[in-house]
Amino acid sequence: MSWKPQVRTSKNDPNWYGNTLRFATEKEALDNAYDLMFRWTAVTDYGAIETEDPVTHVYQDHETKRIDQ
Questions:
Q1: Which of 62, 13, 58 is nearest to 36 (CA)?
Q2: Least C-beta-crowded within 10 Å: which of 11, 19, 28, 53?
Q3: Average of pLDDT values for 14-43?
Q4: Are 39 and 7 in contact (CB under 8 A)?
Q5: Residues in Cβ contact with 39 at an 8 Å cutoff, skipping those fewer than 6 apart
Q6: What pTM does this model have?
Q7: What are the b/e assignments for 9-42, b being 16+ CB within 10 Å?
Q8: Residues with Cβ < 8 Å from 42, sequence gap 6 or more?
Q9: Is-contact 6 15, C-beta < 8 A?
């Protein structure tokens, strides 16, 4: 189980967009998506969903680090 950060890029677009980053906690995924919102100019909302994917990254102190598997 892991958490996937997601963003929306338009209030008129019902779709959420994510990437391959997977975090151990919902907080890490939300913090990562929140920071992404400030780097992308078109983001209108952010969130996180639970997945069955393995954890691939850790997010601490505004840094994303890959977990070597």
A1: 62
A2: 11
A3: 92
A4: no
A5: none
A6: 0.88
A7: eeeeeeebebeebbbbebebbbbbbbebbeeeee
A8: 9, 10
A9: no
Taken as a whole, the chain contains a residue count of 69
Helix (H, G, I), strand (E, B) or coil at 59: strand
Percent of residues, the chain, with pLDDT higher than 90? 74
Tokens 């994917």 correspond to what residue?
53
pLDDT at 56 over 90: yes
In SS3 terms, 1-58 reads as CEEEEEEECCCCCCCCEECCCCECCHHHHHHHHHHHHHHCCCCCEEEEEEECCCCCEE
